[in-house]
Design brief:
This protein is α/β, with parallel strands linked by helices. The protein has a single domain (19-152, 170-355), classed as Rossmann fold, CATH 3.40.50.150. The chain has helices spanning 2-11, 21-32, 46-56, 62-73, 75-82, 102-111, 125-138, 178-190, 208-214, 221-236, 298-308, 335-343, and strands spanning 36-37, 89-94, 116-122, 147-148, 163-168, 197-203, 246-253, 258-265, 269-273, 278-282, 287-294, 310-317, 323-330. The strands form three sheets. Strands 4-3-2-5-6-13-12 form a seven-stranded mixed beta sheet, sandwiched between helices. Strands 1-11-8-7 form a four-stranded mixed beta sheet. Strand 9 (269-273) and strand 10 form a beta hairpin. It is globular and about 60 Å long. Residues 41, 44, 52, 95-97, 101, 121-124, 127, 150-152, 169-170, 172 line the site of S-adenosylmethionine (SAM).
């Protein structure tokens, strides 16, 4: 009887994976394009989030240490802008990850006696669970309202009498192209009242060799992170990528300040998705563009803010001058001026911007 059941079970067709329509659409559009691409938000399944945590600890990945240095060593510089008065604060973090950096700022605000509620938003359940554990252990008195979802689609409801302070750290904005950056910042601005604050963690332009190394580490963790995207597609869209037949390639162009990551097909091959009932053809050497990481000048930050309805109140920079947290304040809407400034956006921003 037992054997019958086991055999019967084995003979059943495997359950089809539940397909996320947004992922399906992005894969059909991206792998069907002339220059193949995949949006970087799909990096962050559980394995991708774990790999990203390893990346943040790599010697080459200076970004996390620099940003953490600002948050740990200069939280009062930021807190003065966030909480100059007694107004309660709602901290809304877009793409919070595990919250390891933000906790220092929350701690500083609580020590100053600022009434504060934290609303982290992230697509990664793994990251939000870690965040919740961290905050429960270290700041149990901080009201915490995590939101699992896309920050393009979700926004917490907060009392109008509170100051909203939105955070976009980890140079997350740099993963978007120019149009998307302005679109996201305008969307944020549309949720804010004049005087509300946006904190933007941004990587500054610097030695190109140092930037490139951050996306091409010696241990190959960034390569594994990039390759995990294909594993995710295999699992979630029933695809048959053979990761042995792809490699990781990173580049940095000082001309436009963009680091870019690609997956390179090592040979001519066809990859199928049973869930999508499609196949995708790859020539030898053909690339999938998977991530952009924009580096900024202070002028570019000013222009980006102006084009999206903000003023730059301050830039708090690490001691080496590699990274900045820009403090932007929502300014009164001035459509004519905003349109004029949008037309004067930074020269040399990446021209190829598929997502
Ligand atoms: C580069 S990590 C940065 C994490 C954290 N902010 C930090 O600085 O350590 C990017 C995070 O944003 C999340 N993310 C990316 N795109 C997102 C989106 N559209 N909506 C919500 N979360 C997103 C990822 O899951 C990931 O946790």
């Amino acid at each position: 009887m037992e054997m019958y059941l086991a055999l019967n079970h084995a003979a059943e067709p495997a359950a089809a994976p539940v397909v996320d329509p947004a992922l399906a659409n992005d894969v059909i559009a991206g792998l069907g394009a002339q220059q193949k691409f995949l949006p970087s938000k799909w990096f962050y399944d559980d394995a991708g989030s774990r790999l990203f945590q390893q990346i943040m600890a790599l010697p080459e990945y200076y970004l996390t240490r620099a940003e953490l240095g600002i948050l740990r060593n200069k939280p009062d510089d930021l807190a003065e802008w966030i909480a100059p008065d007694a107004l309660p604060v709602d901290l809304i973090e877009l793409g919070s990850g595990d919250g390891a950096k933000t906790i220092s700022l929350c701690d500083a605000l609580m020590r100053r006696g600022t009434p504060c509620t934290y609303h982290p938003i992230d697509v990664s359940a793994h990251a939000l669970i870690e965040l919740q554990q961290r905050f429960l252990a270290e700041l149990p008195d901080l009201p915490l309202h995590p939101i699992l979802g896309d920050y393009f689609e979700h926004w917490p409801s907060t009392p109008p009498s509170h100051r909203q302070v939105v955070m976009l750290l980890g140079s997350n904005l740099g993963n978007l192209n120019q149009d998307q950056s302005i679109q996201l910042l305008k969307r944020v601005r549309s949720r804010l009242l004049v005087g509300d604050v946006l904190l933007l963690g941004l990587d500054l332009k610097k030695d190109p060799g140092m930037i490139l190394a951050a996306y091409n580490d010696a241990q190959g963790v960034t390569a594994a992170f990039n390759m995990n995207l294909l594993r995710r597609l295999n699992r979630e869209l029933d695809m048959d990528f053979d990761t042995e037949h792809f490699s990781h390639y990173a580049s940095y162009s000082p001309l436009d300040g963009a680091a870019r990551s690609f997956l390179v097909s090592k040979r001519r091959q066809v990859v199928r998705s049973r869930a999508l009932d499609r196949e995708f053809h790859f020539a030898r050497g053909e690339t999938i563009y998977t991530e952009q990481s924009q580096k900024y000048s202070f002028e570019a930050i000013e222009q980006l803010a102006a084009a999206s309805g903000f003023d730059v109140a301050s830039t708090v920079t690490d001691d080496l001058g590699w990274y900045t947290i820009a403090v932007l304040r929502a300014r009164p809407k001035q459509p004519a001026r905003a349109a004029f400034l949008a037309a004067a956006l930074p020269v040399g921003w990446p021209a190829f911007t598929p997502w």
